[in-house]
Amino acid sequence: MPTVHNAALRGRPGRWTLTAERGRLTSITPDTGTASGLDAEGNLVTEPFVDAHLHLCKVHTLDLAGGGPLAAYTKGTMGAAMDAIDGAAAVKAHQTEEAVTTRARSALVESVRHGVRAVQAFADVDPVAGLTGVKALLALKAEFREFVDVRVVAFPQDGLLKAPGTEELIEEAVALGADVVGGIPWIEFTDADAAEHVRRLVALAKRTGKRVAMLVDDAGDPGLRTTETLAAELLAHGMAGRASAQHARAMALYPEPYLRRLTGLLTKAGLGLVSDPHTGPLHLPVFPLTDAGVPVALGQDDIEDAYYPFGRHNLLEVAFLAAHTLGPTRLDDLYDMITTTAARVIGREPEGLKEGAAADFVVLDGTTIREALTRHNPPRHVVVGGRVVASTNSATHFPAFPGKSA
Fold first, then answer.
1. Residues 32, 91 share a domain
2. Which of 41, 149, 158, 274 lies 20 to 30 angstroms, CA to CA, from 185?
3. Mean pLDDT, consecutive 10-residue segments, the chain of 406 residues?
């Protein structure tokens, strides 16, 4: 696939031809109507999608978990969020590497279908699950490396101090090849333990040269402050710009003076945030933070697990849902949150569509961002390294109306 022609591009009027050689874009020129190759048919061509937050080890476990955790996590102002985590943990009692691999592989096939080029993938690490999730995701990382950049997060879902032995397992996971040190400090029993949770894991990341990804303040409690703790600890360890924070839902309830102070701290720490407004009734103030210069991404978060009963690893669907929750007037910003901004949040600087960049892009089903979000269909074509790796077509035929189809 050396050439794509008749393509619409963001911010560039007219139609365009993109050529590639040896996996890199060699030219982007106005379409003359004479090029051969892949016809984009006037549809929008953009960078591929990036999922900054997916619990990949948990996908398709909803039926194993039952409905209790889901009800607790999505109720009211999320006061029972910790109960949901405790209830969901039961699934791991009989978890095997093989079972995680089978479920997660199906989600990664969907990643390819839907043009997800990179995913920050969380794998639970604790004395019950052991390293089964990490080992499964590391194997899948190798299996899908040509198509999806899987960044494995060693994640202490049940706490660090709450679950003795977890810290040693996290260290072992990093030694095995986990890309990111995870954390979830807000579920510890005391503020002192939460701070120690952050300190130990940021120190581990610093010592091993890894990035950090922590779930912070994921409940309806304005007294939760682990987002601040993480940002301060990053600065103390010289780790500014090397972390992301997921959820931070308590920010929805913070008083404005404190939120303003925290925003300044986040900017200083270079801490990117990930919001998943479709998986819970609260969400961080996405657009105010974006306007203040804090990078915010959207993530899938969950696929048919104890916290969210839906999901196809379709980031267009995630942005479509976010447009209803956050407002439909800033669609371009929402699109950035699943592409270029999401890449920056996980430490994967986007090359963009330009000469010399990797020939990684999607041909959407739609000529504009609004059309693509309205349909949220899989891309018509997904291109990685100059090769078409997935193509999707759909048509509806109306036998009662001869000649009509769509």
1. no
2. 149
3. 90 96 96 89 98 98 92 86 84 93 98 98 97 98 98 98 97 98 98 98 98 97 97 98 98 98 98 97 97 98 97 98 97 98 96 95 98 98 97 88 64
Q: What is the CA radius of gyration of the chain?
A: 21
Label residue 63 left, alpha or beta by phi (over 0 means left) and psi (-120 to 50 means alpha). Answer: alpha
d(CA 299, CA 317): 11
Q: How far is 235 from 265, CA to CA, in rounded Å?
A: 9
Residues 6+ positions from 268 with CB-CB distance below 8 Å: 231, 235, 240
Kindly give the interhelix angle for 256-269 and 226-236, rounded to the nearest 10 degrees.
30
Q: Distance between CA 345 and CA 213 in Å, rounded?
A: 10
* Partner residues linked to 374 by β-bridges: none
Q: Specify whether the CB–CB gap between 124 and 92 falls below 8 A.
A: yes
Tens digits of residue pLDDT in 287-314:
999 999 999 999 999 999 999 999 999 9
Structural domain including 183 reads 49-345
339 within some domain: yes
- CB-based burial, 369-386: b 16+ in 10 Å, e otherwise: beebbeebbbbbbbbbeb
Residues 186 and 300 in one domain: yes
d(CA 162, CA 188): 6
DSSP, residue by residue, 271-315: -EEEE-GGGSS----HHHHHHTT--EEE--B-SSBTTBS---S-H
Same domain? For 355 and 340 the reply is no
**pTM score, two decimals?**
0.96
Place of tokens 């911010």: 11
CA distance 66 to 202: 34
Angle at the Cα of 102 from the Cα atoms of 99 and 106, rounded to 5 degrees = 145
pLDDT by residue (tens digit) across 93-114? 889 999 999 999 999 999 999 9
